[in-house]
């Protein structure tokens, strides 16, 4: 619990005294400098600058061959029927996982097993060629000198009261997008980094979002390895660094067929949340919405 916080007394960013009713405990100047993301890419959530049209006409005629269906059934990875779901949990995850997921997606799309067909109608320049396993990523505010203060202050100065306001912004975004879910999962920290920092910022934020929305948190993703900081690495190095860094553990049967909100503070290249999403989809999660507080225009 965060018992002491300067709620509604001073601006969270510049410390100027403020009116107690100010939204998100910010002064007018700081609030106005924030760019709340209103028009974003429907996949990665980055602010749309150069929208391109995603032409899906090529795939639409595709149907799966019978052998493919048989292969999927043989592998017990049909995640749409209850009995098969149990097997899916026990599915051995190996190097074929990319292939399995691909086939599974084809299967669902080709045979309309999903109640609401998810349509990707546009992708931005950042993500048009990326293979994201989450269904959608949503960020609230553009990363800038002002907005980053909130996250840095939380993460590196231990001002855990920030998480309450960050969560308020994220809750409002969920409401705006009219989104709900069965569970919230915070992006885990490795225990070593957790020991140094003393808390996981994603967990702090997620617990407030859970309180505001009544969506329960489920703690079923574990970070196996303490990964290097990713920002200095290129795309290939990031993917390599994160491969098998996460594991789905106890409680995984609860997430089968469910919609999950995966919570983190910042969405940069999306490699971390993508790696977690991949694991969650293998364990039978139906839909993943990544919800982050900040994102950059370009990464
Ligand atoms: Zn201010
Ligand atoms: Zn995008």
UniProtKB/TrEMBL annotation:
InterPro entries: ComF/GntX_DNA_util-trans (IPR051910), DZR_2 (IPR044005), PRTase-like (IPR029057), PRTase_dom (IPR000836). Residues 1-48 form the Double zinc ribbon domain. Pfam families: DZR_2 (PF18912), Pribosyltran (PF00156). Gene3D superfamilies: 3.40.50.2020. Residues 250-297 form the Phosphoribosyltransferase domain. Transmembrane segments: none annotated. Belongs to the ComF/GntX family. PANTHER family: DNA UTILIZATION PROTEIN YHGH. This is ComF family protein.
